[in-house]
């Protein structure tokens, strides 16, 4: 089964942006459309976690029947995405791999310098804990779809490793997750093509967003009472300084 080519190399968007658009369309637009970014403690800690995977560990490691490759560059011309996998594990597969098919693709491939056949499975490293909106699973699924397209090999499952919990969570790359991932990639491209940044809307999750200081959701939520909101800030500054 050959993947359809929908996008050119110049049209590719960051694979990581799938997580942003699921979390908040405004946040995603601030990053991709307005080219804004800011860090907070969570993003810095997350960056350190990924840097350890990229820099402190070997690019290739063989552990028995598992080959571990780190920092593989990925892209999909069907989804219009480009990015990098934290880890792709290749697990030793049966001798009849070439005759087996899943999703219209072979189930395993040969690796240079190693005997037998090997089945790939991406592993994405995350800082905290599983999220209710499936954004981590969508990002992992996009990596799987990139691998399928690039290697013509099926990727039926992957894993999410949560740093604070020190726990790996297996993820089945099933039809509903694949459809959600394709729809999210399409939504991402439409957002950039429209070039429109949605209005801010204050929500509890804004507290953990590194772009809160640039987005200013509390100002937008204040609506006609923006004057009162600003005056409260001014009063707070005066109180901190002991003025008046």
Structure description:
With 244 residues, this protein is an alpha+beta fold. Helices cover 39% and strands 23% of the residues. Helix 1 (17-23) packs across helix 2 (25-32), helix 1 packs antiparallel against helix 4 (135-151) and helix 1 packs across helix 5. The relative contact order is 0.16.
How would you summarize the topology of this molecule?
Blueprint: E1 13-14, H1 17-23, H2 25-32, H3 41-56, E2 60-63, E3 66-76, E4 81-93, E5 101-102, E6 105-106, E7 117-126, H4 135-151, E8 157-162, E9 167-172, H5 175-194, H6 212-215, H7 217-222, H8 226-241
Parallel strand pairs: 1-4, 7-8
Antiparallel strand pairs: 2-3, 3-4, 4-7, 5-6, 8-9
In short:
By secondary structure, this protein is an alpha+beta fold.
CATH class category label of the largest domain: Alpha Beta
Could you name the CATH topology of the largest domain? Answer: Lambda Exonuclease, Chain A
Strand share of the residues? 15-25%
Mean pLDDT: 82
Number of strands: 9
Describe the main β-sheet briefly.
Answer: 7 strands, mixed
Give the overall shape, derived from the CA principal axes: elongated
Please compute the radius of gyration using only Cα atoms: 22 Å
Q: Structural class, from helix and strand content?
A: alpha+beta
Low-confidence segments: 40-44
Level-2 CATH architecture of the largest domain:
Alpha-Beta Complex
What percent of the residues sit in helical stretches (DSSP H or I)?
25-40%
List the secondary-structure elements in sequence, H or E.
EHHHEEEEEEHEEHHHH
Tally of domains: 2
Please report the number of helical segments.
8
Amino-to-carboxy terminus distance: 73 Å
């Amino acid at each position: 089964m050959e993947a359809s080519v929908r996008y050119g190399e110049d049209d590719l968007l960051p694979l990581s942006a799938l997580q942003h658009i699921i979390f908040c369309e405004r946040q995603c637009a601030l990053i991709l459309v307005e080219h804004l970014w800011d860090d907070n403690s969570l993003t810095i800690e997350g960056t350190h976690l990924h840097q350890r995977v990229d820099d402190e560990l070997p690019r290739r490691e063989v552990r028995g029947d598992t080959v571990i490759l780190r920092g593989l560059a990925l892209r999909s011309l069907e989804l219009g995405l480009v990015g990098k996998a934290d880890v792709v594990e290749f697990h030793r597969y049966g001798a009849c791999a070439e005759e087996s098919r899943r999703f219209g693709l072979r189930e395993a491939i040969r690796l240079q310098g190693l005997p037998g056949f090997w089945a790939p499975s991406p592993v994405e490293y995350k800082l905290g804990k599983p999220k209710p909106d499936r954004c981590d699973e969508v990002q992992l699924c996009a990596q799987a779809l990139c691998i399928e397209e690039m290697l013509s090999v099926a990727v039926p499952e992957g894993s999410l490793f949560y740093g604070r919990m020190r726990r790996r969570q297996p993820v089945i790359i099933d039809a509903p997750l694949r459809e959600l991932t394709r729809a999210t990639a399409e939504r991402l491209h439409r957002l950039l093509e429209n070039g429109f940044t949605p209005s801010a809307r204050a929500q509890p999750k804004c507290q953990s967003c590194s772009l809160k200081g640039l987005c200013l959701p509390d100002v937008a939520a204040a609506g006609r009472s923006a004057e009162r909101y600003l005056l409260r800030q001014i009063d707070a500054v005066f109180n901190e300084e002991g003025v008046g």
